[in-house]
Design goal:
InterPro entries: DIOX_N, IPNS-like_FE2OG_OXY, IPNS-like_sf, Oxoglu/Fe-dep_dioxygenase_dom. The protein is α+β, with helices and mostly antiparallel strands. Helices cover about 30% and strands about 20% of the residues. It has one domain: B-lactam Antibiotic, Isopenicillin N Synthase, Chain (Jelly Rolls).
C-alpha cells in the first residue's frame, strides 16, 4: 500500500500486512483473485541475489541419507546397522529419509488429501478457523510470523496440537477431522520408535529421550503452497531451522524442499511413501551440538499447489509440560565436551522463536553459555 507524505509516495508495509491478515483468505485467496504480481509484503528484497542463485545449486553429488527400517524389530544386527546410519545422518546431515516404516501409504495420502481439502474449501468455511491465538488447539492462517519476519512466505497453514492434550473431535474441521486423528496415532507410534533409535545412537538407554519427555507433545501442521506468479521474488518457506526436538515430514509430488549442506542448497526430492526426518533445535540443545538442527527452505514455484504435513515433536504454549526444563544431557558432557547451552523451558524457547520469526538466524544462539 502506498501513502502520500508531502507529495512523495511512501510504502506502508504495516497497513498492507493488516489488510492481508484481516481478509482471512490467505495466499490462496490472492491466487484465486487472479493476481499476476505478488504483493510487496511477500518480496524478499534483502535476499534477491540469493534467490537468483537458487536455481544454480550444484547438488547432484549429494543425496540425503535414506534409512530402511525393514526388519528393525526382528533382527538385532539389522537394528544396530540402522542405529549407525541414523547416528551418521544426525551428526553430518541433520536430515534423513525413512522407508519401510509402519505408516501405510494410504494414510499418508489421505492426510495430504485432507490438507488439500481444507485449503480448497470456500473461504467462508475456512475463515471461522482463522486466528493468531497460539493457545488455540486448531488454527488456520498464513505465516505464523507475518508481523515479525522480514518478508512473508507464499503459503497457508493449518496447525493442531494433537498431544499430550488433543482437541475435542468436534473442534476440528469435518473435512480433515478423522484423518488428522488417525494420522497422529500412527505418527506418535513412529515417533516412539525414532526416539528409541536416537537414544541408542547417542550411546544411551533406548528409553532415555522418551523419559525426558521428548515424545510427549505432537504439533501437526498442514502446509499449502499455491502456484506463484513470481517465484523468483519469494519463498514458500524461507531459510530456517525447526522448533522442537524432531520433525517428520510428508510431501506430495511437487517438490521444492532444500536443505543447507556444506554451504550448498541440496534438493530433497519427493519419494513416494518416504518420511523426511530432521533434527530440530531442542534436540541439538540437549545433545550439546552432537546432533545438528540444519537450516532448510521451500522454494516458491509457478506450478502448484504443493502440500506437505510437518509433525513437530514438542509441546506447545498452552501445555503444562511446556514449563519442563531442558538442558544438555549430563551423560554426554565431559571436560572435552563442556556444556554449551543454558537450561531452558520449551515455552522460553518457543516464545523467542515466534517473536523472532523465520529470519534465517538460529534461535539457539540466544541460549548459548558465553
Amino acid at each position: 500500500m502506498e501513502v502520500k507524505a508531502k507529495g512523495i509516495s511512501v510504502y506502508d508495509r504495516n497497513s498492507e500486512l493488516r489488510l492481508f491478515d484481516d481478509s482471512k483468505v490467505g495466499v490462496k485467496g490472492l491466487v484465486d483473485s487472479g493476481i499476476s504480481k505478488i504483493p510487496r509484503i511477500f518480496v524478499h528484497d534483502y535476499q534477491v541475489k540469493k534467490l537468483e542463485q537458487k536455481s544454480n545449486c550444484k547438488n547432484s553429488q549429494f543425496n540425503v541419507p535414506i534409512v530402511d527400517f525393514d526388519r528393525i524389530y526382528e533382527d538385532k544386527a539389522r537394528r544396530y546397522e540402522i542405529v549407525e546410519r541414523i547416528r551418521d545422518a544426525c551428526e553430518n546431515w541433520g536430515f534423513f529419509q525413512v522407508i519401510n516404516h509402519d505408516i501405510p501409504l494410504s494414510i499418508m495420502n489421505q492426510m495430504i488429501d485432507g490438507v488439500r481439502g481444507f485449503h480448497e474449501q470456500k473461504s467462508e468455511m475456512k475463515k471461522q478457523y482463522y486466528s493468531r491465538d497460539v493457545t488455540k488447539g486448531f488454527i488456520y492462517n498464513s505465516n505464523f510470523d507475518l508481523y515479525q519476519a522480514p518478508a512473508a512466505n507464499w503459503r497457508d497453514t493449518i496447525s493442531c496440537v494433537m498431544a499430550p492434550n488433543p482437541p475435542d473431535h468436534i473442534d476440528l474441521p469435518p473435512i480433515c477431522r478423522d484423518i488428522y486423528f488417525e494420522y497422529s496415532t500412527y505418527m506418535m507410534k513412529f515417533g516412539h520408535t525414532l526416539f528409541e533409535l536416537l537414544s541408542e545412537a547417542l550411546g544411551l538407554d533406548s528409553s532415555h529421550l522418551e523419559n525426558m519427555g521428548c515424545t510427549e507433545g505432537l504439533f501437526v501442521l498442514g502446509h499449502y503452497y499455491p502456484a506463484c506468479p513470481e517465484p523468483e521474488l519469494t519463498y514458500g518457506t524461507s531459510n530456517h531451522s525447526d522448533s522442537g526436538f524432531l520433525t517428520v515430514l510428508i510431501q506430495d509430488h511437487v517438490g521444492g524442499l532444500q536443505i543447507l549442506h556444506e554451504n550448498k542448497w541440496i534438493d530433497v526430492p519427493p519419494t513416494n511413501g518416504s518420511l523426511v526426518v530432521n533434527i530440530a533445535d531442542l534436540l541439538q540443545l540437549i545433545t550439546n551440538d552432537k546432533f545438528t538442527s540444519v537450516n532448510h527452505r521451500v522454494l516458491a514455484k509457478k506450478i502448484g499447489p504443493r502440500m506437505s504435513v510437518a509433525s513437530f515433536f514438542r509441546t506447545h504454549f498452552r501445555e503444562g509440560a511446556a514449563s519442563k526444563v531442558y538442558g544438555p544431557i549430563k551423560e554426554l558432557l565431559s571436560e572435552e565436551n563442556p556444556q554449551i547451552y543454558q537450561e531452558i523451558t520449551t515455552r522460553d524457547y518457543l516464545t523467542h522463536y515466534y517473536n523472532k520469526g523465520l529470519d534465517g538466524t538460529s534461535a539457539l544462539s540466544r541460549f548459548k553459555i558465553h
